[in-house]
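The aim of this short unit is practical: by the end, you should be able to scan a pair of folded records and say something sensible about each. We start with the first protein, listed as its amino acid sequence and then its structure tokens.
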Amino acid sequence: MSEFWKYDKDIKLFVEGRIPFGDAKRQEKTASYIIDQLNKQPGIILADEVGMGKTFVALATAVSIALKPKSKPVVIMIPKGILEKWKRDLSTFLDKCLRDDNKKKRFIYKEASHPIDFLKLLDLPAGKKPKIIFLTHRAFGRSVGNPWVKLAFIRQSMLRRKNSDKYKLNFSKMASEVLYLKYIESQANSGRGIWKKLLNSHPKRWHTVLYGDGVTEIDDDLVPKAILESLDELNFDDFYEVMKKIPQRNIGNYQERVKEFKNSLNGCLTSKWDEIRTILKIELPLLIFDEAHHLKNLNQGTKSLFGTPESIKKADEVENGSLSNVFERMLFLTATPFQLGHYELCNVLRRFEGIKWKSRRKPLISKNKYIHIVNELQKSLDESQHSVQSFQKQWKRINVNFLNENGYSSTEDWWKDLTRKTKSNRSPKYLKIISDSLQLSESKVKKAERELKPWVIRHNRSRFLIDQTTPRRVWIRGKQTHPQINIEQDEGIEIEEESIAPFLLATRATMFAKGKKGLFLEGLSSTYETFKHTRVNACKTQGKNTKVLDDQLSNEKVLAGKELEWYLSSIEKLLPRDDFESSLNHPKVKATVERAFDVWKSGEKVLIFCFYVQTGRTLRRLLSYKINQFTKESGVKLLSCKEEDVEISLRRISQRLDPGENFAKDLIAGVSKLVLKYDKLTNYAEDIANIVRRYLKGPTSLVRFVPIKEVLETRSDYKEIVDKILTKEMGASLSFKNIFENFLGFLNERAGGENFSDELKHYLVALEKSNPSYTASKEYKEMCKEALSSDEIQGKGDELLVPNVKLANGSVKDITRQKLMLTFNTPFLPEILVASSVMAEGMDLHLNCRHVIHHDLCWNPSSLEQRTGRVDRIGAKAEKCGKPITIYYPYIAATQDEKMYKVVMDREQWFKIVMGEKMETLEDVMDSKDEPIPLPDEIAQLLQFKLSIA
């Protein structure tokens, strides 16, 4: 084996104001450990909890290896939606964490969205070759579209063939049309003859041929070296047969024959590309694959990376994929390794079989030895899971009635008593069985843990904030979600008498929904609109695929049997009319909207997750309605005017914040004074001050943060008013100034070097578009629309949608999602984000938000954790203000909604220890009458795998 990789001593992950010292040391230690393990073994999985900085650990690993002398590029493969985030994080890393200026100067990174672009990057000379290449997950799944590669395939198919000159001549007549290279033919001195010259020359000489014929507007690298080296290994007989069918004369149905030829040619191109990408002669040091749980099955979209069509049938055959036998080592990242079943986790580990085992840096263990290790690990995980499942079965013999009958107020109290009794052998027999079953489970878990530890690293965050006394998270459940209801116990939201009939029918209808997707019934618990929308679409499509959800289940069929149909029709007749008041009277909607509105009114941001398309739209509409009503009512009170005059009056006040006005000048001066404290923001002081000015011009900001009466009484000197605005509390015991200065510190970090200038501008541009100017020339409704891109509207277009509330679902483009992530992380608009699963992975939403409402639950507790993880990250607002992250679970009492809530909460503890436990659906659990008791935390901790590096 060649020289060992080592952690680069010039990488220091501590960044003041961004990465705390303790977290930085853990990350550095983890990266160093990963590199040490990669020297011995084919790969490793980093599976830290959400928000603990896996990206920076991975970058420290990647940069340490990429900076080695003569090292080839490290490849980082990521979902397309988080590419920009990774690039920003790498910029931060290079500027703040890599402490050697010479290394910074020679560190180049690039991205490639297509395999041809990727291969061209590998051909760059040493001084220009990137150290890191970003690839999206599906980059290698794309068909070949490069015209020069197509031409190389065509040339290869006619090489040393009889009569090929005739086919070359025929192809030359239409080459510019087939290859979409008309400019080449128009620039070439030989015109159409250039194509025959190229077909008679090796692709290595094409530059010379083209330049000699007068064509100069071409790339330096036409056909990647790796493709040229693979051509002789392929059979092009099928290609040649297609070339024989080139139309020779422009007669009859010539265009139709040309079209047919193009289609046949493209079919061959696709087939040949599938072959060639599995034999590419590439050798690279390291692949880092983010969101690695997507590799759990080879029949997913990533199948072409690690397996051929033949190997897809066997999950453990990965030797021949397009990225197999390419990398010396692999590092996989995932925050949710245990949402996989243990078999699927082993499948992910088996992807490491695809490394380049015969490289100069081969692992200390052989491939056969590694296969044996994973097989043995799977057996141990089997035994561990079976023993825990057996314990789980015994545990479920205990229910709430048992606790009540025996005088226990909590599970924890009962468990302590049970432990004491079992030691003295005085407990009932079945309780002794439970205790014995637990001991067996613990021993099996520890054995599997020892075997798993070299391959999976997982750190869990502290349950407390930095002061070690304030809980990091608090949970508000059911009826507690409504801000006007003050109770300590966990109770579901009650249904008002006038609304109860539909829910009673829905509960009854569940018996007819067995074996079918009960979207109608779950939809009713979400919003009335979702139920109606699901029903209407189902009637229109009669069971065809329909867009009712907003995540991975969006294409499931929505079915209803004859008996169920009667209930659904009856429910629909009983639903209230579709207006604001009726929508808001939905029991769970009322709790969610009132809570979100209450948090917003206090000056804090809130993130709402929902499952259904229509639910997201409804919540945004209702919150816009509530905020608009609040603005009007506040305006009436503050201005002592009629409601119909509020808009005009507020607009007149906002005009005092127009450029050149005294109020605007004093505000800009006061804000600029704060900005100028940050040395790297001096060039942006005016831009940032104007963002604050535009934010305060909005009517919702005027009535919440501006002392309107004092503004009306002032004509020249507004300095005291500006001071009052800056010291105004905005929730969490933080003033506007506190929050703004935290944001300035954040921006200052992003303005630290030349790599950072673009990121800072991204924030400023996004804020400018999201905080429209409230001017007299615009109607209020139009002003609000100005803050929305076309993909965000998603409605009739005539309803009032205030810019304070934004919607992010599957219909929102990637570029819009990135803008929403940036702006939600600032103190400005938007202040409420209603999101679906598209914002649940890879998004940082933590800098100014510590409130998460799970309006719709997921059966999978890991999905809920991923959502909450958006605001629970290193440097989160909770850490800055010393107040916990608050998580809300609204659910409706005595309905399938409550049943789902209790099952998911029970599953949350079990899911951490019973890997990949089969997810029951609502229909599976509705018949159960026994209410499970929660698993004591002591047991959950005992049976969890402990995979941190001590």
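Turning to the second protein, read its sequence before its tokens, just as you did above.
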Amino acid sequence: MLNLLLLALAPAQAAILQVCNDDVTVGGVAVQGCVSLEAALNGANAGDELYLYASANPYVASATVTQDLWIIGKNSDQGARPTWQRPGEASFALGASCVDCEVRADNLVFDVVGGAATQAVGEGTYLVLEDVDLIDSTGTTVGNAALVFANAAEVKLIRVAASGLSASGTFLEADAGAVVWLEDASFTGLSGENGALVRVLGASSVRVIGGVFTDCLTHGSGLFQATDGGRLWLDGARVVNADAAISGGVVYAQNAGMVHLEGVVVDGSNAGSLGGVLASYSSPLVIAGSVLEGGSSTSGGILYVDGGSLHVRDSDLRDGVTRTVGQGAIAQLKNLTLARFERTLLDDTDANDEGRLVYAEETVGELRFDAGEVRGARSGGFYGGGVYTGAATLTVSGTRFTNNEGAAGGAIYALSPSVSVQDAYFEGNGSDTWYGGAVALASTSAAGITVDRCQFVANDSLSAGGALAIVTTGEAQVSRSRFVENGAADGGALIVDGTRLTVEQNLFCGNLATNHGGAIKRLESADGSLLRQSVFIENQAATYGGAVYWSGALGIEHNTFAYNGGEQDIAGSALVVFPPVAGGEIVANAVGWHTAGSAIANSGVNGASPTVAYTHTFANATDYFGAFTMGAGNSGFVDLGLSGISGDGDCTNDDWTPDAGSGLTGAAADGSDVGATGLGGFETGVFEGCNGLDDDGDGTIDEGFSDADSDGIADCVDVEECDDVDHDGDGAVDEGFVDFDGSGTPDCREVEVCDGADNDNDGAVDEGVLLTFFVDDDNDGYAGTAVFQCTADGASATLEDCDDGDALISPEALELCDTVDQDCDGSIDEGVTKLWYLDEDGDGYAGSEFYACEQPAGSSTTIDDCDDTQELVHPGADEYCDGLDSDCDDLIDEDPVDGDIGYADRDGDGFAGGEEVLTCDGASVADDCDDDDPGIHPLAYDRPNDGIDQDCDDADAASVVGGACGCQTQGPAGWLAWVLVPLLARRRRS
């Protein structure tokens, strides 16, 4: 990537090399400067642009690329795109000779003509092909591979297109540690062998971003294939009508380092053997945010996964078909440590009874379903319509199962020794042959089974357990769940056989059995089984046990039974027991409104007489039938104070909170209430489920569920984020996020380190962490060319040289008068230019300063014009009455050409002489007898006897002793005259 950055900074003088034949013309003119492709490649320098003209047919003989090269396909005047072609061999043969160099090709056509478009790229090479078409002008079969990249090269293919090509190998193969990016490709009608489009192996990595792949075929396995440590990431790709002759219609993985599908859409895909969309062996596999639809195969219509691990999240897997019925229309799984479907839809509503959606063999360590949905399965007579599994552990949390059907276990059939089903919803599922309309758990070595906080609505079984069947050994617990309107021949909601069972804090309402146990039928089971704190309302059975048919050891306590049994006169319309031996207890139960037959019946097997204590009955046709040992605290025919129970056939409108003063309150031996009272959710018949909703209407969402990260969102619906925090409480962090380089840390948490590698696998190297340094390219001792790298490595941290392409320019250079800043001080030619004057106003006289090295044309060494902004002002110009010194003689408006004729006052004494002149405001009377002497004018003092007529009265004043001579004398009158002189002069001029 560093090469790419340096290339972008290459000098503008980079050469343009033209490759063409001698007879090529552009616009009818022969192209000059053409060279052969071999010569161009051998002679290219970093940053050179190599233009291939459309009519050229440049052959490569033994070209060796030793420099970075940028190849640009240049269109001719006819608009055709250039084609690289060499029959039978590589059109673009870089070979191993291009080591640690950078090559770019843009807007080209590669004519593969039976050979590869490009072969192995040298180690460390960075190759970019952009807007490239692959064609085969001869129609023959391409060789082993159209594009082969190896030897730790990094390759980017952007908008590569190909149509109708076939190969004996694959179109893109990455090996020996190569890293390849295929972005926005368009492949149509391609066919080849294994990994017909992309094959990655040998610790290499390929990331396919976007792109559309239509009607492509592999004669082997997988259009995209990852083997032998190769890592494959499909990100946003769309595949339509894929076909594989063997396995993996779209993707095939075997011993891969990683396979990750993110945002992938597959519409129609077929495999001749396994995995209609994807087949994976011993590989870590992640599918996220994808839609995989319409896959078909012998086994695993969408997925066939054998070994490794599988994590599917936020995806839709739809309408898979298997030609071997029962083997996983969506997925067949075996030999996995973990297979997890998280927030994922498995949908087969358009299937043709082709088998279970998920078939997981006993070699799977754990099978998980979290917060997703499974629907529409039709198993075609096989057990487990939605899911069939023998996995060591089955975990179901927050998932919906609707409208699935199987011979047994319409939604789930599990032979797993450990089962946890929590916060799940089952509706409309059915078993058409055997037991477990929704769920059948049938392990012979159960380590523990838990069904907790689930809802079972309108499921049915032709045989037993309309909602749930537990036929196993070991421990089982069914708690805090709702069973509503389920039906079967026996055990309308639940049938249990052979296990030590605890049923507590459940609601059974409106369930129906055509034989025994309208809600529950329990067959022989181990001692210690309990039925407690549960509500049974409006359940019906045709023969025994309108609500519960219980066979085996007894432990029935704190339950409420109301309106069970219907109108049939049956034994035990609320409860019938078959205790195998004497003993057992029926304690603190509330039993009322059973109007047909007996409410509680004992079969009397082995003469057993269970103890009944603190049990209250009310409004039953008959409270008891059979032998019982009546203990303390029983109360019959006393109003139970449950007026909120109506028996109207609606299971949603009952409230079994005891009325004030009810005989149930505090009536048990320990002071607790009789019956199932005071339990959260029971009062309304709605239980809080883990689904992001306020199911029980108490203003709080998903209360009572774990929240490992304390973010206010229950783990069962929380979404894992890439932040090293366990959001969903499963004990793992960041699961399902891609780890493209296999480092063990997801890419989204990888930190880019300045080391020349793409640490976060986003296609960019050292982005955001590169530092700017400067090197001295012109060897003048000062660094001025920017480089982007992690350490100084001999470069300077500061920019010193303002022009690093000229050794005569540096901070210590001598400034020359040449319009260049030699000393890099930001000023040009300072201290070395001369002062000249220019004629800016065009009047022929210079008056504006200008500094330059040489005298500009038309300039002067002296200033001539007193105002170089006005064309009419200059030496010799006419004066006008405008207040300007137009002729630059320091006088203003003298002798103006637009003035009036008057008399001049040359001596400035306020009196005009006899000379006529042009003036702006000249005098109209000539009354100064001497206009060259300002001391002579009509108002001047005429000094006596000096022979001069100062006052212009044509006589010189005479002096007379005594002053009585009638001549001018000095005194006040004389002083006044001098004052009046200028006033009179002003009046005369006006």
